[in-house]
Amino acid sequence: MPIQFKIDHDRRHVEAKAEGVVGLADVEAFLDAIVVQGAIPYRKLFDGRLAVGKYNDNDVMMLGARISAYAANLETRGAVAIIAPNEEASILAKRFINLGKSGRAAEVFLSEAEAGKWLEAQPEV
Length: 125
Description:
By secondary structure, this protein is an alpha/beta fold. The protein has 4 helices and 5 strands, in the order E-E-H-E-H-E-H-E-H. Strands 1-2-3-4-5 form a 5-stranded mixed sheet, sandwiched between helices. The termini are far apart.
């Protein structure tokens, strides 16, 4: 699986790292896993610096729709910090965040240190 992740229930934190080619099915599997394990309210750090995203416009819209459904049906969702490998990838990540209309704290970073600092400053939900 190109997205490896750890859920720390004590810290209420999810740390994910994507490597290699990542597509819609991979992200959906990751999202399903954190929903099933009760980690949606946790703060999440998603490191995509070693990943190559293979998405078309429809895939991005599907991911946005899934996040919108979470927003409509789940009470609390934790902040998410996405680390992108470059500015081009950060544009796609920002588009995904905007399409999700999640209403939660979400930011895209090019630096792991900045992402971690920002995420730790976000309140637990």
